[in-house]
Amino acid sequence: MASVRIREAKEGDCGDILRLIRVKTVGRKPGGTSRVRKTLGSALRADGFGENPFYHCLVAEILPAPGELLGPCVVGYGIYYFIYSTWKGRTIYLEDIYVMPEYRGQGIGSKIIKKVAEVALDKGCSQFRLAVLDWNQRAMDLYKALGAQDLTEAEGWHFFCFQGEAMRKLAGK
Amino acid sequence: MASVRIREAKEGDCGDILRLIRVKTVGRKPGGTSRVRKTLGSALRADGFGENPFYHCLVAEILPAPGELLGPCVVGYGIYYFIYSTWKGRTIYLEDIYVMPEYRGQGIGSKIIKKVAEVALDKGCSQFRLAVLDWNQRAMDLYKALGAQDLTEAEGWHFFCFQGEAMRKLAGK
User: Fold this and answer.
1) Which of A31, A74, A117, B11 is the most exposed place for a label (fewest CB within 10 A)?
2) Which ipTM was obtained for this model?
3) Nearest residue to A166 via CA among B120, B156, B75
4) Under CATH, which number does the domain A3-130 receive?
């Protein structure tokens, strides 16, 4: 099994992250098509690598075997940021995680999740939240196996979202 | 009906915000008791009013009628922060909203939500997310009436959370 390293992304990784996001969105759901906006590449740079970044990113890379001429290859990412709970204080949120299908089953997703938990503790967070679609049973099983609780199932939390015209109307604009 | 003003909270509002959080946690669910930690007052100050705040807060205050000697009275709050969607970019998240029971039915909650939508548009956010417990039908109806979509119902999003011992174990600490 190839050696895998999980590390904080640098600005130079944005091309790789964008490549993975494109692949993910195409293959997200049977029959799905990529909905990635054209400006995503520049947005990823501006929003993640400025003075007050809107997000942080971990990348998973396969390290070359001894003697191999190829450099490390980025095969997965985890995008996270810090949020705030009135009750629990500083909290980390894993917004998006992806591992290329060809590299699944090697524990790379778990390694990314564990690294996020390490960052959470280092930064004084008492919670680590994430969300998952209920058709993604494989991911739900993994998170539960790693110790997460399904708060939608256990407590009845529902996600709501305003966007587009509804948000503009709400703001009176 | 009394006149209501929604404004950004200042550090001096932390006492009022803490008072409301205490009332909210006691009355959160029938039979519930306050689970607010002792250090919440200092945490609210440190985490919301430093150089890089972890959260932002709006307060709703009732303005005194002409000739009244009392000052404005804070009767509600909305705690929000900025998050990031891989697909949609900058997004605002309303973590917690509360209006004292005595002041409900006057549209104060809606005013807080509308102000959050205004901030969202001003800051270039394309989404405004929040979460609600499914026993809180009144809140769910309000958000839907204001134009929000229930993404748990529509798309199957589930909230997951690691905390306490599960998070430390995950991080190998």
Assistant:
1) A31
2) 0.87
3) B120
4) 3.40.630.30
